[in-house]
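tokens incoming
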């Protein structure tokens, strides 16, 4: 399992970096759209869709709606009401998700029997992620075609670092369970280890990468994004536990499904974009 995970990671990471820096924004938008459609396909399990046709329909509807919105809105302007609304909504949703995770399994009684709510949770997870990815990729695109690519790479490395740090610290020092009813394998030692790793990445990346932002703003955005990434992981674990599945899919060898790989990013990206572009107005 570890071997296949490493091989897949060594293949995927260069592809992601190439997509960030070599694809034009339109090509990057298409890739992001496809990822969101695959995420919607997998979310169908959480919503209680058992047939392949239902899940394919959900993925297709998701793709069409995102494509229509992307074509009708100037995605380079994150302060456009329609886009900023989705980014602000992401903050509200992940605060609500925090409450659901903290009080699970009692909180599940509110949505366990409601397919509508479970679908709504999927929309609140996938759509803001889509807009967060595009808002960051288009950051200062007219002045520097790669400015947004650096920001997205920064968020991804931040999240990957937090995940890797949490895994290593958890394996070495983990004793106290972080959320035993949601994800028994996660520990407080791993949680703080992940935050420490993210802090080191923030310092190194901030010093050597072309990120033009005030240090205080970068610190707040980074810490909040790292915390959000943990919440995104726990939230998906909660939905998987309710659905009775171990992985959201099997599209990525050794890693499970698309949602298993982007669960942390679905929270970190829109939250980071909202803070950077709308709260600190780094435009």
């Amino acid at each position: 399992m570890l071997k296949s995970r490493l091989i897949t990671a060594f293949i995927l990471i260069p592809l992601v970096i190439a997509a960030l820096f070599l694809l034009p924004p339109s090509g990057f938008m298409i890739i992001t759209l496809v990822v969101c459609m695959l995420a919607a396909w997998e979310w169908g399990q959480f919503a209680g869709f058992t047939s392949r046709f239902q899940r394919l329909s959900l993925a297709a509807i998701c793709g069409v709606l995102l494509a229509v919105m992307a074509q009708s809105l100037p995605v380079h302007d994150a302060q456009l009401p329609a886009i900023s609304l989705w980014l602000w909504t992401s903050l509200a949703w992940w605060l609500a998700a925090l409450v659901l995770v903290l009080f699970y399994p009692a909180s599940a009684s509110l949505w366990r029997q409601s397919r509508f709510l479970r679908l709504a949770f999927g929309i609140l997870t996938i759509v803001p992620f889509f807009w967060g990815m595009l808002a960051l990729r288009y950051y200062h695109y007219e002045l520097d075609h790669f400015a947004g690519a650096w920001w997205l790479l920064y968020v991804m490395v931040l999240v990957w670092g937090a995940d890797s740090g949490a895994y290593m610290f958890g394996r070495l020092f983990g004793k106290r369970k972080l959320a035993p009813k949601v994800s028994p394998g996660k520990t407080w030692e791993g949680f703080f280890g992940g935050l420490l790793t993210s802090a080191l990445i923030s310092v190194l990346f901030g010093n050597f990468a072309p990120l033009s932002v005030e240090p205080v703003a970068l610190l707040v955005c980074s810490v909040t994004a790292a915390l959000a990434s943990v919440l995104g992981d726990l939230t998906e674990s909660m939905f998987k536990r309710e659905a009775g599945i171990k992985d959201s899919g099997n599209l990525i060898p050794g890693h499970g499904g698309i949602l298993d790989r982007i669960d942390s990013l679905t929270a970190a990206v829109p939250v980071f974009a909202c803070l950077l572009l709308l709260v600190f107005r780094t435009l």
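note: The longest strand covers residues 183-187.
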